[in-house]
Design goal:
There is one protein chain. By secondary structure, the chain is an all-alpha fold. Helix content is about 65%, strand content about 0%. The protein is built from 16 helices and no strands.
């Protein structure tokens, strides 16, 4: 069974790369996502979600009514915790394929990368996983051709917040459809460095405590001196920030090639671009650059990795477009570019596995009812 548990994802990965548009392969990915998440029997958050489910009503989920509603409905029809996870897995698996289909036509390539990073982690953190995939479904709404797109995107972020309030941060992607000149690029840098100063000095905590009576939750996630969550040492901070920076750099480079080298290297005004494919690639690039504003959070905790993990599916869409759309490139160079695109998420997964000494990340593939 061990061979099967680890052989299936490897086989799916290879099939996704070789058959990027196959509906049959897409179905297998969705089915496998359901199996991994719905039939999982042991993850770091497995027991905490069990307690949340079985004792819901005695616990406080007042700010996340969507998650509470799913629990309420499942308990009302008599589902066990494991059956509740199956329902959650169905929702997540279906929304994953919806999101990928909206982002690119090469869905199986994206799903192949997504399977190893971050899906294998999402099996544990199911709330943020569902909330972030809802947001990713809304990313194409930021395209100029989408009528009332900005409103639709904000609404989807709000829906995601009913599952996990942390996705409110993704509202910064509303800026991705606007024209960026040097001043706006400098604004991103100012947010990064200014945010780092604020995080280290706890200025934000002091302001929140003035206006919020019970600020304990905000203190936990914003207090640089808190020891409650995974703090990063200097090496850990640099290692994690490396990926936050290298993804937009690589995406910007690929986007420039995809768009024929005619677009700027930073961020474009989408309304000045007529070609729909170019608009889409530029939007994804803009989003990756706006993602740099997440860096200050790493001063607080490694938990802020989730913001990068949550939108990797968007970044993979650029990788997919490059792999299958770019034809005029020397074979050796093309192989090298494709290898880097695949290697980046695998290295990120490796960093996560190395830093998570409390549990075996790869055990997610075998800790499953199907392989017992």
């Amino acid at each position: 069974m061990m061979v099967l548990a680890y052989g299936i994802p490897i086989a799916l990965f290879m099939c996704g790369i070789m058959k990027p548009k196959s509906k049959a392969i897409s179905f297998l990915f969705v089915a496998y996502f359901f199996i991994l998440m719905g039939l999982n029997t042991s993850t770091p958050d497995y027991e905490s979600y069990r307690v949340s489910y079985e004792y819901y009503g005695a616990l406080n989920y007042s700010l996340e009514i969507g998650f509470g509603l799913i629990i309420t409905v499942c308990k009302a029809i008599g589902l066990t915790y494991q059956q509740f996870r199956m329902v959650f897995a169905i929702l997540y698996s279906v929304l994953s394929i919806v999101a990928v289909n909206r982002l690119t036509t090469y869905r199986n390539y994206v799903l192949a990368l997504f399977l190893f990073m971050p899906f294998v982690l999402n099996v544990s953190g199911i709330r943020f996983a569902l909330a972030s995939i809802i947001v990713c479904c809304g990313i194409p709404c930021l395209m100029p051709r989408c009528k009332r797109g900005l409103v639709k995107y904000v609404l989807l972020v709000l829906v995601g917040m009913t599952i996990h309030r942390a996705v409110v941060v993704y509202l910064i992607f509303c800026l991705a459809r606007k024209k960026y000149k040097l001043q706006q690029y400098l604004f991103v840098m100012a947010v990064v460095f200014g945010g780092m100063v604020i995080m280290r000095t706890n200025i934000l905590i002091n302001l929140i405590q003035i206006f919020v009576s019970d600020a304990s939750l905000y203190i936990k996630w914003l207090d640089a001196s808190s020891g409650d969550i995974g703090r990063l040492n200097l090496v850990g901070f640099v290692s994690n920030v490396f990926f936050v920076v290298v993804f937009p750099l690589w995406i910007s480079y690929l986007a420039r090639i995809l768009c024929g080298g005619t677009q700027g290297s930073v961020v474009e005004d989408l309304y000045s671009i007529e070609d729909e494919k170019t608009q889409r690639i530029q939007l994804y690039k803009n989003i990756s650059i706006n993602g740099l504003m997440m860096i200050p959070g790493y001063l607080i905790s490694s938990e802020y990795q989730r913001y990068l993990f949550g939108v990797l599916i968007v970044y993979y869409a650029v990788f997919a477009e490059f792999r299958y759309e770019v034809k005029r490139m020397r074979r050796g160079n093309k192989i090298l570019h494709d290898a880097i695109s695949i290697l980046l998420p695998l290295l990120l997964l490796g960093l996560y596995m190395y830093s998570m000494t409390s549990h075996d990340v790869m055990a997610t593939f075998k800790d499953n009812m199907l392989f017992k």
